[in-house]
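Q: what sequence does this backbone want?
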């Protein structure tokens, strides 16, 4: 008996797949992969890319319950939360979402997701390339790799406390970030998104 499983990806522009004119980002690669597997006879995993450019966890907590409610599959749901690159950014002298608030928001989102599923994945924040680390960019945002470590540690700790899985894209990018990130130093390029998809495909495989 085939099952229909909904995989919901919440996040910012990196989830949405910005700057990838080839594949449309890592989530869209997974969407095509799941569709191909379904045609070959696997379970149907419907991938919803719910990434919104510029979103922080503040936006996430406002919408997660509505989104889950609207896209609930009785046969199984998987939720991915990929936040932090905007939260940790400093704009006009203050952090968009402080690390304390970030922790509260992620926990709140997990609590909401747990009403629907036990399959919850927390996605690490990527490192920034050296040309933007600690430098205010055109958007007025300033980000540092030191803060990435702080926020990723929060994600890892919360994942442990809540029995969620942690997807460590950070480790995969760290040594090769200058070739996996686009010129803006924040978003992956096609190669970077491809690397993310390679890591995430085995996770999707579990539901196929």
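A:
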């Amino acid at each position: 008996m085939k099952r229909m499983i909904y995989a919901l990806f919440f996040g910012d522009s990196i989830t949405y797949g910005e700057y990838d004119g080839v594949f449309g980002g890592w989530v869209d690669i997974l969407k095509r992969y799941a569709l191909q597997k379904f045609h070959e006879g696997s379970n149907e995993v419907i991938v919803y890319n719910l990434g919104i450019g510029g979103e922080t966890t503040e936006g996430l907590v406002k919408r997660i319950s509505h989104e889950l409610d609207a896209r609930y599959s009785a046969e199984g749901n998987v939720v991915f939360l990929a936040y932090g690159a905007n939260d940790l950014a400093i704009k006009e002298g203050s952090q968009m979402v402080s690390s304390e608030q970030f922790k509260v928001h992620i926990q709140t989102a997990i609590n909401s997701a747990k009403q629907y599923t036990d399959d919850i994945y927390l996605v690490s924040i990527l490192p920034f390339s050296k040309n933007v680390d600690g430098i205010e960019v055109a958007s007025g945002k300033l980000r540092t790799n030191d803060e990435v470590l702080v926020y990723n540690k929060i994600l890892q700790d919360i994942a442990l406390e809540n029995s969620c899985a942690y997807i460590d894209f950070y480790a995969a990018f760290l040594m090769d970030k200058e070739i996996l990130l686009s010129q803006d130093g924040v978003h992956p390029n096609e190669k970077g998104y491809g690397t993310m998809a390679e890591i995430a495909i085995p996770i999707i495989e579990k539901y196929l």
